[in-house]
Amino acid sequence: MINKNQILQNSRQLGTLIGLFIVILIFWLLSPYFFSTSNLVNILLQSSINAIIAVGMTYVIITAGIDLSVGSIMAFSAVILASAMQSGIGVPIAILISLIVGTLCGLSNGLLISYGMLPPFIATLGMMSIARGAALLVTQGKPISGFSPEFRFLATGEILSIPFPVILMIIIYIAAHIILKKTLLGRYTYAIGGNEEASHLSGINTKIIKTTVYGISGLLSGFAGVILTARLNSAQPIAGIMYELDAIAAVVIGGTSLLGGEGKISGTLIGALIMGVLRNGLNLLGVSSFVQQIVIGVVIIIAVLVDMILKKRKK
Amino acid sequence: MNSKIPDNIVLKVSKVCKRFPGVKALDNVDFELREGEVHVLLGENGAGKSTLVKIISGAIPLSGGVISLFENEVVIKSPKHAQEMGIATIYQELNLIPSLSASENIFLGRETTNRFGLIKKINLLSSSRRILEDLGLEIDCQVQVKNFGIAQQQMIEVAKALSMNARILIMDEPTSALSETEIQLLFKTIRRLTKKGVSVIYISHRLNELFEIGDRVTVLRDGKLIGTKRIVETTKDELIKMMVNRDLREHYPKLKTDSGKEVLRVEKLSSKGKLKNISFVVNECEILGIAGLLGSGRTELARAVFAADKFDSGKIFIRGKLQTLKSPRAVIKNGIGFVTEDRKAQGLILSLSVKENITLSSLKSFSKFGFINFKKEKEKADRFINEIKIKAINADQIVYYLSGGNQQKVALAKWLCMESNVLIFDEPTRGIDIGSKIEIYSLMNRLKSEGAAIIMISSELPELIGMCDRIIVMHRHQIAGEVSSSEATQETIMRYAVGA
Ligand SMILES: Nc1ncnc2c1ncn2[C@@H]1O[C@H](COP(=O)(O)OP(=O)(O)OP(=O)(O)O)[C@@H](O)[C@H]1O
Ligand SMILES: [Mg+2]
């Protein structure tokens, strides 16, 4: 038997998906080049960084938290990776180090929030500044460029003409979806976002779960840093500014409530793709980046408005 | 009791229907309210009482039917609209804003402002004080509401409703969190209001109450109207029969068992301002009652034992072993479960399903490598849904949409699923209908006969006397006395409870 909440949840998903198709349709009509295979692959490639960061953001927002530090952590991990490789450390080890650095930044957020009782907004705001400063300090403010072809293969390589970053993104989404739906960690993430006090009194170790969730967000930001560095063949200490807002936008457009307790990974993917399609399509049409900002803002607001109207109808 | 019923009809509801996806919560219900009467709505959990009341108060739209107010047909568009037409409502679930003060809550949305649009705080304060004083309450209106206990919050809700000078006052289970003294206070207020011509719709599962306060009673079952009676012309047994469609007596199926080994021992537990020097023992196959007035420290005691709050000194032994358990998680692992008094804030994850709530604590036991075994989870949840008759569309229904009593059952099922053998029940039958109450009592007895140790905190003395083997009575954060079931009477318990 299907129950009404599943129908509603799915109708929300369906709504976002329809939104995506509408946007695609509009650009298809307006620009002949838009619907070519190479451009569609390009959109996926361009969306992959934001999409990967938004996965961690989804987890965090389901716990009723927020992570403002993702962009800075990404940049910090990227410059750590770059300087490690420059100093002659092998590619796999360098990647591992940068992922560890990203994870540690995320875990620190989690510890400050869980054990230091800081509001997530404050803790991650602090980390946003610290990680950015650290990235600038490590590089003295200058980008590090030029890496070995093996490393760049991470971004240039492809399977069946699908670029690696897109494949990695898909793998991450599948894993994140399974973890959220099928594991204790996922269930507890929803429970904490729904009611932290009741979760605590039910015997859930809320502090460890929350710390883990922020750790995951840090790890994925680090991962995004690795891919970005490979793609650009350069690590910039000022990369990823405002990425937190793009990630939050993807999550929110995807139907996850900022109040916590509900949300879906698949929604976030659609949300990230909507953002990607918008950017790409508007670029093709030669719309200025100033106007693009306005359009994206409007889309975010419409998405949430529609969501709220749907929720009201539930009553 | 006001046995003479005036005839002016202030509210008439005809053929009202309300459909939710999957349920027909109201099916052609007629209901009328006369001037100055207390009209009780009665029915099992999920019968549709709250739904009816929510429609009248504008909280939800109706799917069919007509409402006339003061002989005019009306469409009630929103709670605010209802208030403007003289209908004030106290909902089953508290609706105060925790971070605002009592007075700010009372006048929320109706603040008087000066010509710069700033709130006139003085007016707010003095008016709130007057209302609270009228109610006989000693509540500091400048304190944030979150610092008050659930009973005081309930009284603030009453004050809020009164401040609207309503012609019709709706109360959905106002007494479920109150103790005898406060209930009497509330009744006094209700009587004063009805004398002034205010009409009251009153929902409660406590049958005794309605004979004390009600003029007429309307019984609903499965969303259908069963009938309306004058209180003086009916009996408890008749009402129960109307409600559940079978004969059922309100009784306590007390089970005599020999109590077994000591399971939980608390020694000299103290916590500043909350608990003073508390010692007691609970054994296997035993139900220990904890009586006391509101604020006497009963819930604080439960929370301290459950490691939800820290305590300053004292020892807790479980099965003879001294425990230094730091978190509820560790306590739960030792087989202790805690059904909290405030299910919405502490007991349930309202956004999760019935199944997910039931298995929340025990999830690890049917997971492997962190992956949940959904088949086992569903089996477990379904078992308890059937066993304690939780009324839900299915195991996947979100708990938020269950009726109050069924939510309580879900909160309880969580611990049954965990197979806890020491259970602390804080007001376990609050808001639960009589049939389910008896089911829960039998369940407690079954657990008891299977060797569980049960601590039952309750404000309903007949229930304590009927169910418990021993009762300790708390007064001002300490134990004032202990009575055994054979010598327990309401009088002896009350004497200890008020410290006489
Ligand atoms: N928003 C909703 N969506 C779906 N079903 C609902 C919703 N609200 C109530 N119901 C269902 O409607 C029925 C009537 O619920 P209602 O809350 O009116 O019961 P009640 O008589 O007040 O019970 P209780 O004594 O437990 O408070 C129940 O089966 C309940 O699950
Ligand atoms: Mg109700």
Quick synopsis:
The complex is a heterodimer of chains A (315) and B (500). Chain A is mainly alpha-helical and 315 residues long. Chain A has 13 helices and four strands.
Strand order of the largest sheet of chain B: 6-7-8-3-9-10
Give the cofactors and ligands.
adenosine-5'-triphosphate, magnesium ion
Strand content of chain A: under 5%
This entry's quaternary arrangement is heterodimer
The CATH class of the largest domain in chain B, by name, is Alpha Beta
Give the termini distance of chain A in whole angstroms. Answer: 21 Å
Largest sheet of chain A: 2 strands, antiparallel
What does this structure look like?
The complex is a heterodimer of chains A (315) and B (500). Chain A is mainly α and 315 residues long. Chain A contains 13 helices and 4 strands. Chain A has helices at residues 4-30, 37-62, 70-86, 91-114, 120-139, 149-156, 164-182, 184-194, 196-201, 206-232, 243-253, 265-284, 289-314; strands spanning 144-145, 158-159, 162-163, 234-235. In chain A, helix 3 packs parallel to helix 5 (120-139), helix 3 crosses helix 10 (206-232) and helix 6 (149-156) crosses helix 10. Chain A starts with a helix and ends with a helix. The mean pLDDT of chain A is 91. Helices cover 32% and strands 26% of the residues of chain B. Chain B contains 17 helices and 22 strands. In chain B, the strands form 5 sheets. In chain B, strands 6-7-8-3-9-10 form a 6-stranded mixed beta sheet, sandwiched between helices. A 6-stranded mixed beta sheet of chain B has the order 16-19-20-13-21-22, with helices on both faces. In chain B, strands 2-1-4-5 form a 4-stranded antiparallel beta sheet, covered by helices on one side. In chain B, a hairpin with a 2-residue loop joins strand 4 (64-69) and strand 5. The A-B interface holds A 1, 3-7, 182-185, 187, 190-191, 193-195, 197-205, 261-262, 315 and B 20-22, 60-61, 306, 308, 327-329, 332-333, 338, 340, 345-353, 356, 360-361, 363-364, 367, 370-372, 374, 393-394, 396-398, 401, 414. The structure holds adenosine-5'-triphosphate and magnesium ion. The site of magnesium ion (MG) has 6 residues of chain B, from helix 1. Adenosine-5'-triphosphate binds at residues 20, 23, 25, 43, 45-51, 92, 391, 401-406, 433 of chain B.
